[in-house]
Write a structure and sequence with these properties.
globular; Rossmann fold; alpha/beta; 8 helices; Alpha-Beta Plaits; 2 domains; about 35% helix; 4-stranded antiparallel sheet; homotetramer; 8-stranded mixed sheet
Chain lengths: ~280, ~280, ~280, ~280
């Protein structure tokens, strides 16, 4: 028996679930876990199902797509043993990368990492020591367009399903963001929408907040405005300088980004309007 | 359109979900929310579905029960507007009662409270001020059997679906526990299985723990061993005396019991072997 | 032996602590608990000491003030048995008031409540049932100045040490804020600086955040910009409507405001520049 | 100016703090941070002070020790720039070691690691890649005494101040525990006192708890009974198998052990009777 993960999005209407479960039963499948959400504000139905079946994926896909055709859904079917491929991008800071690689090595993150790309050489040795190919794509104002072109090619060649910006410090172009909409995850080092922009920990110190946080979100052309996937906070007090907040915040950034990557790779995150629906 | 909540338990096997969704579709229903879990250790499938339909509950129930008969399931169907009825029991401490009544008055807890029963008179005025009938059933070693008989009658007369022990300080008999298995919720003032038995906060102080907690569980004949519904903890330090831990702990007890009552009343808690499955 | 709480603020310089402890020893005092913080950014030393002594407060105060005179400090001495007096202000929402009164009745909040003031009559019966005097001061654009004058008089007559805005929905004038600087605590129903202004839960829903929060702060002429005393958050997900966020948020508001009132009443909050130092 | 950390323990009595601050003032010191706690149950006063002074440590120590002699205290003085030396012990599991090394490399943990000792060879390459000497001391029933003798020698030679058992799977002898009382930190993979002994995550699964945790404690001859330094928990649900709880629990173990090491190395943990006082 093979384990499958099915994702479905459609404008909500009666009968979709029953038709879908019918397709699963028709191919000898047994549902192990399922969750769904009908978003009133966007009208979108989001469904995630895990099931077992002895049939081939193509047989199942055909059965489901044909059966559901009148609902015009977007259907994604993945063998549970096929892992999502994440292309990770970094600059010089390595704390988020360190956590992703730690969980990757232990099999805690259900991903493959075909390569890690950076605009600097600093982290090459860390990456290569982990047995992952490292690509250096320097970026200047003059070369930005060419750099993004090269990056696009690498995404395609590597078969990456999504991109993780693990404290990658370059802003991506609107075109690039649009091309990979819903497929680029960024970690912002504040509890958005507080402290957008640069030096959020210094802003947090200036405001005297009692909790600092981090936010993982899909990247859109509007900086720091993309749909939020995951957030968390940690308690701080008056004794922490801005520099100390940076240190404390690293732990939250690591945790939040790894959790967002796990949710995305596990097919649990659905874009619905400007928000995410998380079927966890 | 009427909103319905459907609960289903059965030995897991292929086809149950599809048959169930078929029954819902057949009565013109549209699924709004659904969750299920197949427990490998107990073999039990637990399902909770919310759906809308214009049909009467009896029509729907018949459709579902007939359609699903070959799976020999336990099916419960409730109109969303019909609230579960909770008979609350107290002794002298009122902090859990206070929180339940606060949320009840505001409509945060989806329950009706037909009456509150106590083995003491102390809280009569608080209860009656909230507009809820108060019944005093004193309990001594000699009268315990008769007291439980009276309590059973009150449960029946009041149409209570379940019993909440909001710091009720009498141990119920094995017979009573068995009769209402899975329908009595107790709050224990420790993070079980730590500190079973009496004076758990004094035990916690003696051990020097850095977190104290509370546990809401179904009552069984084995004291403090029933299936756990909800737990939470709060951080403490060396400065708290045992008496201060009692004060701090009250907040956790209130929160944990109210959350357990909410989950149960919302039909989200399923007994599965010695554990609970929470479809939240 | 009487228990005393001593607060001291001064521009930091060597010798203050030793002089202060000398003054305590000179009056036969024994220190039970002490904490201090020297804020580099503001240059202010904040000190809180609890000690026991058999001497009268006037003797101790004189000893301390004379001994410390060359450091030009602000010294406050309070008998531990003298509770800070809190004048509470409400409008129509009662969830924060309910929590304050619950903890007040049980002795968890070290305050006296001489009266509760509201710009509406709605909560009169709740307040009077708790045995606390209720004053109605209606506020319109035309009567605002007179209303604040009446409020000032009530603060003076009641001997209130500080004012708690427990979801009081009127903006206080700059003059009033300045007059009671560091003595008015407000609860804002968002995790500031996110979602300033009106309808923060609707803003939160709009942005799709995964945590919502509340902030207790001292009131200044800059709305929602005063020094933060306490903050907390709670996890939410896509299923919560804005109206449901309002319900969930009430619990955080209650908790955060009560904690801020406790810290303030226990003399643990020090203004230092635009921030607070909490010696907890 | 040099920064110093002073720790003091003594039977509590009036005048200790004033005498101590007098000693600091006498050597030109300025107090930056201080905390103290008088434990009623054990009668012990615990004090931690950070101060600046231009004097040499021997001058300060003499001044303090002589001045305080009549109180018969235990006084420890450390230059802030002198880091506590931690000898880390591991077996085959590397998740706690990984977190300690990560924070060590970034300077987040105020320690030196003179060496890492293991009863297995498995982690040699990880340790040596971090630039830390690795010592293999195999342990069998027959060689246990000799192995502990070798370990004692290594502690002495390396100048280690304390020992960290980062999932070291051998039980230390009573003699060894007594010799290094208050200087060996262990991480237990449960929220003690729940689930003592072997396979705590399997015990937790068996009981159906809703939170799992970890406990860092000083090692004593009574297994799993030593004074607790730090604890934390994480929420789990019915979906996690015992094996999955092991994976989830690793994150809590890492966090709790690193925090305990930080508190100990920062001189903030005081043994007081069977408990710890944490002056954080």
């Amino acid at each position: 028996m093979e384990r499958y993960v099915l994702r479905l999005r459609a404008a909500d209407q009666p009968g979709i679930i029953h038709t879908m479960t019918g397709g699963i039963v028709a191919t000898g499948g047994n549902i192990l876990d399922s969750a769904q959400y009908s978003d009133e504000s966007s009208g979108q139905l989001s469904v995630r199902v895990e099931f077992e079946s002895e049939k081939d994926p193509e047989v199942i896909r055909t059965e489901l797509v044909d059966g559901l055709a009148r609902f015009d859904p977007i259907v994604e079917l993945r063998r549970g043993s096929d892992r999502r491929r994440a292309l990770i991008m970094v600059s010089k800071l390595d704390h988020c990368l360190d956590d992703l690689l730690y969980r990757y090595r232990r099999g805690e993150l259900p991903i493959e990492i075909p390569m890690i790309v950076s605009n600097h050489e600093d982290l090459r040795s860390v990456v290569e020591a982990a047995g992952v190919p490292f690509h250096h794509i320097p970026v200047t104002a003059a070369t930005k367009a060419a750099a993004e072109q090269e990056l696009s090619s690498l995404v395609q060649e590597s078969g990456a399903d999504f991109i993780v910006l693990a404290r990658y410090m370059q802003v991506l172009s609107d075109d690039f963001c649009a091309r990979f909409a819903g497929r680029i995850i960024n970690i912002h080092h504040s509890f958005l929408p507080s402290f957008k922009g640069a030096k959020p920990y210094h802003q947090a110190k200036g405001r005297g907040v009692k909790l600092i946080g981090a936010t993982a979100h899909y990247v859109t052309a509007d900086l720091d405005e993309g749909p939020i996937i995951e957030q968390d906070v940690v308690r701080v007090d008056h004794r922490s300088s801005a520099e100390h907040l940076v240190v404390i915040g690293r732990d939250v950034e690591r945790k939040v980004l790894s959790r967002a990557v796990q949710l995305h790779a596990d097919d649990r995150v659905f874009l619905s309007g400007q928000h995410t629906v998380i079927l966890a």
